Hints:
single chain; 436 residues; alpha/beta; Copper Amine Oxidase, Chain A, domain 1; Aminopeptidase; 2 domains; 6-stranded mixed beta sheet; 4-stranded mixed beta sheet; 31% helix
Amino acid sequence: MIRALLAAFQLAAAPLTGGPAGPLIVKDAGRSVSVVLVATPDGPILRADALRPVVPVTVSHLMGDRWMLIVNGTAIEVSPGRRFATVGADSYQLATPPEVRKGVLYVPLQLVVEIVPRVVNNLVWDAERFELRAFSSLTRFADREEAKPAVPKRSRSAVAAGEPQRTQPASPGIVSSRASTGPLRSRKLVVVDAGHGGPDGGMHGPIGGGPQIAEKNITLSVAKRVGAALGRRGVDVKYTRTTDTLIALSDRGRIANEAHADLFVSIHVNAANPGWKDPGAARGFETYFLAEAKTEDARRVEQMENEVVKFEANSSTHAGDPLSFVLNDMAQNEHLRESNELADLIQRRLARVHPGTNRGVKQAGFRVLVTAFMPAVLVEIGFGTNAADAAYMSDPARGDEISNAIADAVLEYLQRYERRVSAVPSPPSIGGLAPQ
């Protein structure tokens, strides 16, 4: 064990001291990209998104000094100036601390050539050729697992005692989209919100026995998959949370506003009304946009999802401020039609893959949507109280289906929006999508 750790430290130090040995080559069967390395006193670094032409990479600035890379579906968290990277419950020692230069994240070469190939199964590092190779098959290199160099790893308690428990990363085997939609003309940013978290577990189910699920875990897993799917479609992504932690409802919209996001998508799991005749039989999916609830069931879901405020120690909203209410109402009304259209597209796409009932587009006064001044929707991806829906949402492969459907709907909406704004003069906008 000690010998393996020493070998790993030597491997980390050898190519990472002094200046770069040369450009890093990233290639797959049909493409090859030369990535420029930047010399630092501790070792070479490179842009975190430099692999993107060949390897699906999404780079998101979380809150404070936390940054998230999702590489082919696997989430890796780093912080500038700190010499470790976090993957799920594991932390890996870095030879060189990450840096932020002019708002762009740079990561050490060691992270890309040692740690990433270890946690992302279809990437292999060839030290002799100084190449990082991407393969379409995940099983092809399973027999090489033991040959991969050991990377110094520390438990979470050793590096971040007292931090909230983190969940495991999403499965790297994400299904590629078969959507025929083309690329966008300009970069767009979507904030993906995983509902609940921390002490707020959300709903628990199913009714009548079977493997139990907690909403906060399902939403986090699906949100990461949605983000990865959007990244593969050329859409930038920011998350409200990537760990098992509680984010105030009012702060989730604020995160999107401060990032000047174009869309806000919140992922949730539904629960049946215990007073229904057969609550365990209720299943299906529905998408909400922000407006006054029209039905008793919409008011029930609104109340259920808004109950998280009881877990919040403080709230940044000013419910008694008449001016804030008027301004918020004006901003939200501007995006009402756009939110409705996005919700409709999500329902249509989910209907192609989801085995449950299409419960349609609905409206309700969700607090998580109130402070997001852009087109915003809340997706109830299934009933956790139903055994079949709970099993469906818990299956990683089915989670990929859900995520790809939502990502396809978002991309279709963004393309429609671009066509609309290119055909007419650009009016003033209150946050959210603005003509490019």
